[in-house]
Here is the input.
Amino acid sequence: MIRSVLLGTGSALPARRVSNHELAEQLDTSDEWIVERTGIRFRHIAAPGETTATLAADAARGALAAAGLTAQDIDLIVLATATPDQTFPATATKVQAMLGIDDCVAFDVAAVCSGFLYAVQVADAMLRSGVQRRALVIGAETFSRILDWEDRTTAVLFGDGAGAIVLEAQDSADGDGRGILATRLHADGRHNELLYVDGGPSTTGTVGKLRMKGREVFRHAVVNLAAVMAESLDIAGLTPADVDWVVPHQANARILDATSRKLGLPAEKVVVTVDRHANTSAASVPLALDTAVRDGRIVTGQIVVLEAMGGGFTWGAAVLRV
Here is the structure.
C-alpha cells in the first residue's frame, strides 16, 4: 500500500502584526469584546508587496527545508486559497516560478477555510496513484483584501498568512505506519448566504467583500466538525482516545472548545493558535500544524487529526500518523 507521508512543514506571516487595541482605534470594538467572543488577540496584515503567492512561496521554502529537499524534488503543487493573486493563472503556478521549478503539476483548490483539507485529499489521491512522487500542499490567504473594514463583526476575525507541507509517496510495507490514514470531505451549497463574498468575475465584475452570519455559522460548524472528525477516525479504524493532537481550523476559540467537548477530547490535545494570527482561512490548519511541529508538541509517530469548515458550506478532516 502506498501512503502519503508528511516530510516537513512550513509557514509564513506578514511582518505587520495588528493588535485588538489597534483595531479599536478605528472600529467600535475593544480588546475585551474580541477576546471574549473569539479568543483572538492579534492578526497579521499583508503589506502592498506581500501577496498570497509570496506568502505561499515563503511557507513552501520552510517546508522544503524541514523536509531536507530542494524545489526540484517536487512534482506536484496544490495550493488552497480563496484570495488568489489573479483570477487566472493559478497562484500555484506563480509559486512554482518563485521556487524555480521548471515543470511540475500546479493548480489551485477553492474551498475557502476547508481548502487545505480538500488540497490534502487531492494530493494524497494523486500521490497514491503513482503518477507523482512528492507534493507541496499549501494553504495561503490575504483575507485583509476582501474585508469590509467598517464591519466590526467580520473585520476583527481574519488575518493573512500561509502554511505548507511536503508529502511523499512511500510504500507502507517498508515503513512504520506513517502517512495519511483517512480523509473525509463534505459540501452543502444550500448555505451560501451564511458565509460568502458579495462579488465575483461572473456576477459583479468586482472582487467583493466578505459577509457572514456568525451565529448560524457557529451552529453548523460545531455539529459538522465533530461529525466529520468522528467519520475520519472511523475510516482509519481509530477512536478519539487514540488521538494525540487535533489541529483544527483556527476560526474561533469557542468553536474549538465546543467541538472538542462534543468529541470528548481534552482541551490540552487541541492545538490553538487563533489568538496570535486570527482566522487565516485555508492557511490556518497548516499554520497551526507548523507551529506545533516546530515547538516540539507534535512528534514522529503520533496520531494527528486535521479539520476545517468554510463557506459553501464545505468541511472535512484528515487523520495521519506523522
The mean pLDDT is 97. The chain is about 35% helix and 25% strand. The longest strand covers residues 160-171.
